[in-house]
Each structure stands twice: as structure tokens, then as C-alpha cells.
Design brief:
Blueprint (H helix, E strand, L loop, with lengths): L1 H7 L5 H12 L5 H23 L5 H20 L14 E3 L2 H7 L6 E4 L3 H9 L2 E4 L8 E4 L8 E3 H4 L7 H8 L6 E7 L6 E7 L4 H7 L9 E4 L3 E7 L6 E5 L8 E5 L10 H18 L1 H6 L10 H23 L8
Antiparallel strand pairs: 1-2, 2-5, 3-4, 6-7, 6-11, 7-9, 8-9, 10-11
């Protein structure tokens, strides 16, 4: 983690941001524009640093401010047509069913509505893309997901399916499993005009139908081979939702197929972590009695181990994801 922040330090300096912008965009920015980029990265690091040592009572709010600051720094670095003043001032998200949730303490049913704001700007500048470590500890692949639009509503429990590394904590919380399968092979250039996806493990019908819905997978077939599942379906413009599992059984990354959200939309890892951080940050900010009660042996506190784990996960992975989007990769130019 220290290595990631050390690399991000380059985006807190005038000279290195000037070099980055020229190498990435072939342009020069004036000192004021560079300062807008560096200031957000500086503030983001300070918020994360403060969150790391803060009490759990305020940690999620500080973490969310750090996530938002790094997001704005990334937006300004990747879209140099924007100035800080032109960025939207709103979060880009809202939870409209807080009253119902706070009464029942069924936090899994929190519904996050997407609006115009920092969230939508982050989706746009990142192209709702994931940089993936597929059976590798280094980035070697990308996946694109159908972006959400303003007005789309995403339940918290469906959002969490984008983070297979949290499957144990999710099960402990809700006694439900997260459905995902690690990708071994994807072949989209077959003579039979089908897409073939080979997955680790023997998938049951329920899992395969969740990951590859019949409404999208035309003429789907399923085969099994040496503890692997092979899915084939006609090319129709549909592609599965693919996210990252950071730590597989061998300590390296896997690209994993997961269920699509309603209307076949998806969220990349950046926007998914932004959304989760927003939810818990706003809970701590506006409903402190509910937030603090999660650690005080009260109704609804079964979510606490999951919350504790996801905040650690965001601490570690969100800055890494920001850095992933700032780097360039040879395989993208092939």
C-alpha cells in the first residue's frame, strides 16, 4: 500500500503532473490548472491518512471525502477540458429510503439513486472500465460494463456482488452467497459465431443462469470439463459483467463473471467503491446514532464485520484503482 501512495505522490507535484499531461494528452496546462489536479491528490491522501487513524465513529466520512478528492483529481487529470470550477458540486448519488432503513435496520435494502455529479463524472472519465489482473498479479486485461444513467437505482446488496473478495463477510452478514466464477478462457473469434467462456469450477444451473441470463445468452449451452464449466452462446452484442477478485487461492488476481445489475447495467470497481463509501459516509454523517450503534451490540449490528472489512478494502484498493487509470499499458495499444 505504501508503494501505491508513493507513486501517487507524483501527482502532488507541479513538474510531474506537467509531464504526465503532456505525455498523456500532448498538451501543456498552466500552473493554475496543474494546481487544481495536485490539490485534489494532496487532499485525498490527507483524508485517507486521517481516516486510517480515526475512530470508527468518523472513519467512513473521512474515507468518503478521500475517495471523492481522489476521484476529482483523476477526473481532472484524464479530462483536461474540465476545470475545477466546471466539476459538478454534488455527490451524484442519493439514498431516498433512509427513513425506512433506519426503522427496520435492514441495511442490505438501502437503495442508491444515481444523479448527475461527481459519481457520473467518474463513470464517464473511466469509461466504466475495469483494469484487471486475470490469473496474474499484474494488469493484463480490461472489461467494459454498460454504464448506469441518471435515475437508475441500485440496492446495496446487489452492489456488493462486484466484490468477490468479500464473499465470506457477506455470507456472515446475510447468510447468502455471492455468485461469481473465475474466468479461465474467453474466445470471441470462433468460426461458429459463438462466444465461449471457460470458468473455474462446476457451476450449478442457478449460478450459470444468474451469470449468463437466458434473456441475453441466445442458444446457451453448458458443458463440463476437468472441473471447469464451458458456456457457449450466440454473439448478439451482449457480454457478461466481469470484475476483479484480488486474492484467489494462489494469492494472485482473477477476472470473475458476476450477475448484471437491473437493466443489464454494471459498475466498474472505481464507481462501486465510490458508491459504497458514500453510503457509509452519509450514514455516519447524518445518522450518527445508527452508525455508532452498529458497534454497540444493538439491532442491525450483524452488518458490522462486513462494514469493517469493506472500509479496509477501500483503504487499500481505491488508491490502487486510481493509479491503475493513471498508468498506461502496452496491451491496450495492440
Amino acid at each position: 500500500m505504501k508503494k501505491v501512495w508513493n507513486e501517487l505522490l507524483g501527482f502532488e507535484t507541479n513538474d510531474l503532473v506537467d509531464r504526465f499531461v503532456f505525455n498523456r494528452h500532448g498538451r501543456k496546462l498552466n500552473k493554475s490548472r496543474i494546481l487544481q489536479i495536485t490539490s485534489n491528490f494532496i487532499q485525498g491522501r490527507e483524508y485517507f491518512k486521517s481516516a486510517e487513524i480515526a475512530s470508527i465513529t468518523v472513519k467512513p466520512l473521512l474515507q468518503y471525502y478521500g475517495v471523492m478528492a481522489l476521484s476529482k483529481g483523476l477526473i481532472l487529470a484524464l479530462d483536461i477540458s474540465k476545470t475545477e470550477e466546471q466539476l459538478k458540486s454534488s455527490h451524484g448519488l442519493i439514498v431516498k429510503n433512509w427513513n425506512e432503513i433506519l426503522k427496520k435496520k435492514d441495511f442490505e435494502n438501502i437503495e442508491i439513486t444515481i444523479l448527475e455529479g461527481t459519481f457520473s463524472e467518474l463513470i464517464k472519465v473511466s469509461e466504466n472500465k475495469n483494469y484487471l489482473r486475470a490469473n496474474s498479479s499484474a494488469i493484463n486485461w480490461t472489461s467494459y460494463l454498460k454504464p448506469p444513467i441518471s435515475g437508475d437505482i441500485i440496492p446495496l446488496k446487489k452492489l456488493i456482488q462486484y466484490f468477490p473478495d468479500l464473499s465470506d463477510e457477506y455470507y456472515s452478514w446475510l447468510e447468502e452467497k455471492l455468485y461469481f466464477a473465475a474466468v479461465q478462457v474467453i474466445d470471441t473469434k470462433r468460426e461458429d459465431n459463438k462466444i465461449l467462456i471457460k470458468l473455474s469450477g462446476l457451476l450449478d444451473i442457478q449460478t450459470s443462469d444468474l451469470l449468463f441470463p437466458n434473456e441475453y445468452c441466445i442458444a446457451k449451452t453448458i458443458e463440463f470439463e476437468n472441473n471447469s464449466t464451458i458456456i457457449k452462446f450466440d454473439k448478439s452484442g451482449w457480454y457478461p459483467n466481469i470484475t476483479q477478485r484480488w486474492n484467489s487461492h494462489f494469492g494472485i488476481g482473477d477476472a470473475c463473471v458476476i450477475p448484471a445489475l437491473p437493466n443489464d447495467i454494471g459498475l466498474n470497481l472505481l464507481s462501486g467503491m465510490y458508491m459504497i463509501s458514500y453510503v457509509f459516509g452519509m450514514m455516519a454523517r447524518y445518522y450518527p446514532s445508527t452508525w455508532i450503534s452498529l458497534k454497540r451490540v444493538d439491532k442491525g449490528d450483524k452488518i458490522y464485520p462486513f462494514v469493517f472489512r469493506i472500509m479496509d478494502f477501500i483503504d487499500e484498493k481505491f488508491p490502487q484503482q486510481v493509479l491503475d487509470f493513471l498508468n498506461k499499458y502496452d496491451f491496450e495499444n495492440k
